[in-house]
Amino acid sequence: MDFRQVRYFLAVAEHANFRRAAEAVRVAQSALSKHIAELEAQLGVQLFDRLPSGVRLTQAGRVYAEEARRSLDLMERAATRARKAARGEIDRLTIAM
Questions:
Q1: What own/partner pairs with CB < 8 Å and gap ≥ 24 does 31-38 have?
Q2: 65-75: per-residue pLDDT in tens?
């Protein structure tokens, strides 16, 4: 599983529709569907109920979405802090007199 799959999953969860999610993340619908199927296979759970008018998260999908959002937020925070550290904006300065 990679972060791209997680982002794609969250797009489908948000839009409740593969076509609209594919447009939102700018990927072909078939590729998006493949990534979601791979993610479901890796997790061993069905994340979505496929409906004639779109999709709906399963219970497992709702739990995964909650945790996935939290994980992506942490990764964004880690990236931001790494960039700040590289610029010297994060460090401890001790001055003694």
A1: 32/8, 35/4, 35/5, 35/8, 35/9, 36/5, 36/8, 36/9, 36/12, 38/5
A2: 999 999 999 99
